[in-house]
Amino acid sequence: MKVIVEGFIIAKQDEWMEEPEFIFREYDSSKYSSDPQVMVKPHTIEFEIPDGFDIRPGLVESLEQEKQKLMAAVQSRITEINAKIQSLLAIEA
After folding, report:
1. Could you tell me the end-to-end alpha-carbon distance of the chain, in angstroms, rounded to an integer?
2. What's the pTM?
3. Residue pLDDT, tens place only, 62-76
4. Per-domain boundaries in the chain
């Protein structure tokens, strides 16, 4: 399947960069970014999607990674809370 995406070539150059960086975006991000960016020109890209492409495995993998990060954050917070509880219980009244 052929896909055509209309967008913009954007140039940005941070203070530490010797040369500008060029990126493709589907919208003119120079209008909305607090970073210094310049729209170079509108541009269209065209590419083929392989037959049988299925987005679902990639979406599932992304959700699994997000779930793992969330579980790690929750476990970390539980550990902090348990430490505070133990600290309070260790104080003699």
Report:
1. 73
2. 0.59
3. 999 999 999 999 999
4. 2-48, 54-93
